[in-house]
Amino acid sequence: MAMKLSYFDIRGIAEPTRLLFAAAKVDYEDIRYPLAMTTPGDFSTVVRAEFDAKKAEGEFDAAMGKVPILECGGVKIGQSKAIERFVAKKVGLMGSNEIEEAQIDMLCCHTVDIRTRTRQQRRPQARMTWTQR
Length: 133
What we know:
17% strand; Glutaredoxin; alpha+beta; four-stranded mixed sheet
């Protein structure tokens, strides 16, 4: 069954899914929406015309207007970790029993924690609790 992964033309949160496809040597359609900044380094000036047009058409409604989104057999799946788990199962990389599956799932959750903590360390404002803001 053909699969189509849609995300921006960056590694970001879709990269683990791309790596799963590569590790399993499984072909898929890799849709990458371009991003540009009108002022380099200023993320408030990001331009993503192609993505915005598809979003306006409802292309990402299954994922609440966000990407990544995976399409498989006409069904759209959102949320990066759900996509990773689904693809890992489809390509045979989700363990050989329930314990291994749970351990792999645990590692996926750890990556979310690590990514969150890394972001907090990069941005002092993000370290502040809601009571300090």
